[in-house]
């Protein structure tokens, strides 16, 4: 209200004085007074961000059974009937796999499965991504209810929710993803390579030291790290 | 000879992605198919038959001035283009299923100096790229601010501008040489070029407005707000969490690149530039900045672009691109026609500041010699290095190694694999080895 009054007052002033200064009205302490102010209500059409604490989750509800139907129609062509990505051409990779947890993330022989179920830290991340970017070729076409439904279906396929589960803001916030504790802050520099100039050791040499970055170099800034 | 060359060259002749400098430099060696080799042969015949004053360009007028209102390179440079990773030399399943979510690499081996021409700047998109009408494009800043601001492109361009030289590198760059274990045990191809392996790296002069100025204009609460959620206007509305400390330091919203407005592939009309940090964080087509006290944990900072360690834990927020260098001549796919003098050259860069040294080894890393750094040497920017060299005609293992102003020295790839694990192929800043065979042909010897 205060802002609206100020705007009104300032417009009156500009009009009355015949000023040619083309500025938006409520300049206040703005250094340059460039751009237009926009109300929180006007921002709603823009807002997509959904945070792990649930901030940004919209009203709405969806059921896993409905989600299965939507998934079949709009997602399975790429991600497969069971959430295991489809290969389209012989010499190309598959679309992302959404379901499964083998090989496990600790496997050192085979490429670990990094799926929604085995790897993604928060259910909000999945909701946020589907709403902002999926279906791949027709983004921003699903309703909020449909995004809840598809999220429920994928969580059911990953054995994170029981069959037929409903999801809304509150129930989505109750979901704990299996890999929620699977992330650690960047720890680089993580190896030490001396600037050796002659008779240096190389990989494969007996006794070649790999080195550790722990006591070496400037660590990455702690302010970079996303923590909850 | 380790490789079956006839088979290789047959493959090259069939694939447009492999009309390489090898065939340009050695038109008389091996097969003479493909556009480049034909051009070399043609020039040779012309030169022998006619003196300088009888050549067509000496006896006829050239094309009228203005023939190309927006100029382009000589037709003889037509093979110097961006290219996708050649699927025949990549591991099975490496090339993404659709070109709308894919990449092309910069032909580093064919460029000089440190600036990437705009048409050759690497591409990486997750939902294709649109050519957005700047008259309809708005940038909104909201959240923990005194006022939500909506800026037109006209508004943005009225802010004070800065111009900086910065590299951009995809965090997945050079993952092809992380080691064969990463991709189902397949051997890394010796036929890969610098472009194939390291091409998701480019460098430009960027002009734009300081993010700190925009935050001040919106009255952002920079004490409480530690994050900015920056979002693109593309079909994936790609979003990432940008640390406030970086935003206030040296981030800009760039609208111009190398003197002209951004190309659509680079986020026209406006993109985020986070100097020294992985490409994905440098959001293109910026449309919205939410000022918040918590990060988003978006898909591209959790499900992807995180670094799975052998412990099973994954490093998150691995933003910095550490010190790295590669030799671009001689490099994979090129060929030395004879023994004698050559100038070794390459590029080095660090996301932590300036390059202080680049060393070159001609014996697989036993002994190293400092290379000459070409001025200017700028922070978070490519630096060119050179070294005079006489090739004795013997097999040579060629490497470069960068050290930055923090004292960090580029490690061997094997050290990084040992520290992180076989399946952690993002942020590979390890040393690239090229092998020059006694016939002068140069191959990838890494991975």
Question: How would you characterize the overall build of this protein?
Answer:
- The complex is a heterodimer of chains A (228) and B (447).
- By secondary structure, chain A is mainly α.
- Chain A has seven helices and four strands.
- Chain A has helices at 2-17, 40-43, 64-74, 76-79, 123-133, 144-157, 169-173; strands at residues 36-37, 61-63, 166-168, 183-185.
- Chain A is extended.
- Chain A starts with a helix and ends in a 43-residue tail after the last strand.
- The model of chain A is unreliable at 1-23 (pLDDT under 50).
- Chain B is of the alpha+beta class and 447 residues long.
- Chain B contains nine helices and 23 strands.
- In chain B, the strands form six sheets. In chain B, strands 4-3-12-7-8 form a five-stranded mixed β-sheet. In chain B, strands 5, 6, 9, 10 and 11 form a five-stranded antiparallel β-sheet that branches. Chain B has a five-stranded antiparallel β-sheet with strand order 18-17-21-22-23, with no helix packed on it.
- In chain B, strand 22 and strand 23 (442-444) form a beta hairpin.
- The longest helix of chain B is centred in the first third of the chain and has 15 residues, at 35-49.
- Chain B is globular, with a radius of gyration of 23 Å.
- The interface between A and B is large, with 92 and 102 residues.
């Amino acid at each position: 209200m205060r802002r609206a009054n100020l705007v009104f007052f300032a417009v009156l002033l500009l009009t009355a004085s015949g000023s040619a200064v083309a500025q938006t009205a409520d300049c206040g302490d703005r250094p340059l007074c460039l751009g237009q102010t926009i109300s929180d209500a006007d921002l709603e059409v823009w807002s997509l961000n959904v945070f792990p604490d649930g901030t940004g989750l919209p009203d709405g509800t969806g059921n896993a059974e409905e989600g299965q139907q939507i998934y079949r129609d709009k997602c399975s062509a790429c991600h497969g009937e069971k959430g295991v990505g489809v290969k389209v051409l012989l010499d190309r990779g598959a679309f992302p796999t959404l379901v499964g947890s083998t090989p496990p993330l600790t496997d050192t022989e085979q490429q670990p499965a990094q799926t929604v179920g085995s790897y993604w830290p928060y259910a909000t991340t999945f909701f946020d991504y589907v709403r902002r970017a999926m279906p791949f070729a027709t983004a921003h076409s699903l309703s909020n209810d449909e995004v809840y439904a598809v999220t429920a279906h994928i969580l059911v396929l990953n054995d994170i929710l029981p069959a037929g589960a409903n999801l809304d803001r509150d129930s989505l916030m109750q979901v704990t993803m299996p890999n929620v504790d699977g992330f650690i802050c960047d720890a680089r520099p993580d190896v030490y390579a001396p600037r050796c100039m002659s008779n240096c050791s190389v990989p494969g040499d007996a006794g070649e030291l790999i080195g550790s970055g722990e006591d070496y170099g400037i660590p990455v800034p702690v302010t970079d790290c996303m923590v909850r | 000879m380790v490789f079956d060359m006839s088979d290789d060259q047959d493959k090259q002749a069939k694939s447009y992605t492999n009309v390489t400098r090898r065939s340009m430099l050695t038109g008389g060696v091996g097969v003479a198919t493909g556009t480049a080799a034909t051009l070399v042969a043609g020039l040779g015949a012309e030169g022998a038959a006619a003196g300088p004053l009888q050549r067509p360009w000496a006896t006829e007028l050239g094309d009228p001035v203005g023939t190309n209102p927006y100029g382009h390179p000589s037709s003889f440079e037509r093979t110097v283009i961006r290219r996708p990773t050649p699927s025949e030399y990549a591991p099975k399943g490496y090339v993404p299923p659709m070109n709308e979510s894919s990449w092309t690499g910069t032909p580093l081996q064919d460029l000089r100096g440190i600036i990437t021409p705009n048409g050759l700047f690497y591409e990486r998109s997750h939902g294709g790229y649109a050519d957005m009408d700047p008259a309809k494009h708005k940038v909104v800043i909201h959240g923990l601010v005194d006022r939500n601001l909506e800026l037109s492109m006209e508004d943005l361009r009225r802010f004070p501008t800065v111009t900086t030289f910065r590299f951009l590198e995809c965090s997945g760059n050079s993952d092809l040489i992380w080691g064969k274990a990463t991709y189902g045990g397949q051997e890394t191809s010796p036929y890969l070029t610098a472009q194939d392996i390291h091409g998701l790296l480019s460098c430009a002069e960027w002009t734009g407005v300081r993010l700190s100025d925009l935050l001040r204009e919106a009255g952002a609460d920079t004490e409480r707000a530690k994050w900015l959620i920056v979002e693109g206007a593309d079909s994936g509305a790609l979003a990432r969490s940008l640390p406030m400390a970086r935003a206030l330091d040296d981030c800009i919203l760039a609208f111009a690149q190398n003197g002209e407005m951004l190309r659509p592939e680079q986020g026209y009309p406006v993109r985020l530039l986070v100097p020294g940090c992985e490409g994905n964080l440098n959001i293109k087509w910026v449309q919205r900045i939410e000022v918040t006290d918590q990060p988003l944990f978006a898909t591209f900072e959790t499900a992807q672009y995180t670094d799975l360690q052998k412990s099973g834990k994954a490093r998150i927020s691995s933003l910095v691109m550490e010190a790295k260098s590669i030799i671009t001549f001689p490099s994979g796919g090129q060929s030395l026609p004879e023994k004698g003098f050559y100038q070794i050259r390459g590029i080095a860069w660090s996301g932590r500041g300036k390059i202080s040294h680049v060393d070159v080894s001609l014996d697989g890393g036993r002994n190293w010699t400092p290379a000459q750094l070409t001025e200017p040497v700028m922070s978070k920017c490519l630096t060119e290095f050179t070294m005079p060299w006489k090739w004795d005609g013997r097999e040579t293992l060629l490497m470069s190694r960068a050290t930055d102003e923090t004292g960090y020295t580029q490690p061997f790839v094997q050290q990084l694999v040992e520290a992180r694990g076989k399946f952690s192929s993002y942020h590979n800043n390890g040393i690239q080895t090229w092998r020059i065979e006694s016939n002068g042909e140069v191959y990838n010897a890494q991975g």
